[in-house]
Write a structure and sequence with these properties.
Growth Hormone, Chain: A; 2 domains; 417 residues; 2% strand; 4 strands; two-stranded antiparallel ribbon; mainly alpha; two-stranded antiparallel sheet
């Protein structure tokens, strides 16, 4: 019996899962527009830069923890239910953030509650698309995940407009209701293919069953710790830059709010473009050189920002485009490296562990950026540690990012050989 999707043969109908998944990730990726909320919140709650970064930081950490955990339950509970539950929790976090309260309350409602929702939903559209496209997995997943990085292109100007017309609290309410409706509606049509389904003419490559003496052999290798540290450094610089993009442009370069908002949307394009570019580059030139290139861009951007001054808009634009581009790159380098360097049969488990680096980098980078702003009265000094860490990252990548010998060594027992 021929499988139909949206009234079309499965080979054609499956393509509609890509824009649907992209739309879900556009909603979730509003977190990358957080810098638009910071100044209004600082004025409303009478708080400093460190405190206004806390909800953003906590959301990223909670997201990094929940994403790999919930990925293991998609097959058990189904894509529709998990997406619906996560969408409701995400929307609830935004809606509760609209209530009167202090920064601690906002950190819990936005950072923890919305963060849990984002962590639950994020991996589901990617898993659905990957299963429907065994023949074009990289292309399909890449086109879907780009929605998260490109989200500020749409949500930053939308948030700015809503804040100006309705206030920051009412903006949280509007976004929460909208996200709940959109994600719930899309959840009703998400489904994975039946067992054994494959596109016509597609022949899956033969797989060899592999068992290991260790439960997670990746953890026995130096390559894992090198990759984890490199991902932490890349996230440290990139996520902090995302969190301070708008206020830094206003305070140091003396740009107006409308200009910095439009630039956040521009930077989002670079963030989205970094994913397919670095995915291709890492495939073509190995994870080591992909990581080194990303760190070189961070180093260049850091040096540029250490020399930026009032009115120097071009330097600011180029530097932050590089920061956003390199962060998008790491969201392709890390999963590609995990597939390349370690046993691909354990990819879901392995990348879940590697992804914890994203949360650690978010925590360290955003908190340090806010703290430096509060102590020194400027974000400029933050770019000294990003420059130093970029150099450290280059050294780590050069000596640690290589294919794990565990895959081919005596720790592997090939069954049936």
């Amino acid at each position: 019996m021929e499988i139909k999707l949206f009234g079309l043969p499965a080979e054609k109908g499956r393509w509609l899962f890509i824009p649907l998944g992209l739309t879900v990730l556009l909603c979730l990726g509003t977190v990358y527009s957080w810098s638009i909320f910071r100044k209004p919140l600082e004025n409303l709650l009478n708080i400093g830069a460190t405190e206004s970064l806390l909800p953003f930081t906590v959301l990223l950490v909670v997201f990094a923890i929940l994403m790999p955990i919930t990925g293991f339950y998609i097959n058990r509970f189904g894509a529709r239910l998990i997406t619906a539950v996560g969408g409701v929790i995400t929307g609830l976090g935004y809606i509760l953030s609209s209530f009167e309260g202090n920064i601690s309350t906002l950190t819990f409602t936005y950072g923890v509650i919305a963060g849990v929702g984002v962590g639950i939903v994020y991996g589901v559209p990617l898993a659905v698309v990957a299963k429907w496209f065994p023949d074009k997995k990289g292309l399909a997943v890449g086109l879907t995940v780009i929605g998260f990085g490109l989200s500020p292109l749409i949500t930053a100007p939308l948030a700015k407009s809503l804040i100006e017309s309705n206030g920051v609290r009412q903006t949280f309410l509007i976004l929460g209701i909208a996200f709940t409706i959109i994600i719930l509606a899309i959840s009703t049509v998400l489904q994975t293919p039946p067992t054994g389904w494959k596109p016509k003419g597609f022949q899956a490559s033969a797989k060899t069953s592999v068992s290991f003496n260790q439960r997670i052999p990746m953890l026995q290798t130096g390559s894992f710790y090198g990759l984890w540290l490199c991902y932490t450094i890349g996230s440290f610089a990139g996520l902090a830059a995302i969190g301070i993009s708008s206020p830094l442009g206003e305070e140091i370069v003396k740009l107006d709010k409308a200009t910095t908002t439009s630039l956040v949307s521009l930077f989002a394009i670079f963030n989205g473009a970094g994913r397919p570019f670095f995915g291709w580059f890492t495939d073509r030139f190995t994870p080591k050189y992909g990581a080194i290139l990303a760190f070189i861009l961070i180093l260049i951007a850091s040096i540029m920002m250490l020399n930026v001054g009032s009115g120097d808009a071009l330097t600011y634009k180029v530097a932050f485009a590089l920061f956003w581009f390199s962060l998008g790159g790491w969201l392709a380098i890390a999963p590609t490296s995990t597939l390349t360097m370690f046993n691909p049969e354990n990819y879901a488990k392995n990348y879940g562990i590697v992804f914890t680096a994203y949360g650690v980098g978010a925590l360290g980078g955003t908190l340090l950026a806010g703290r430096i702003r509060d102590i020194f009265g400027s974000y400029t000094s933050f770019f000294y540690p990003t420059a130093g860490l970029a150099v450290l990252g280059i050294v780590l990548a050069l000596f640690t990012l290589k294919r794990s010998p565990v895959i081919a060594g005596k720790d592997v027992e090939r069954i049936g050989s």
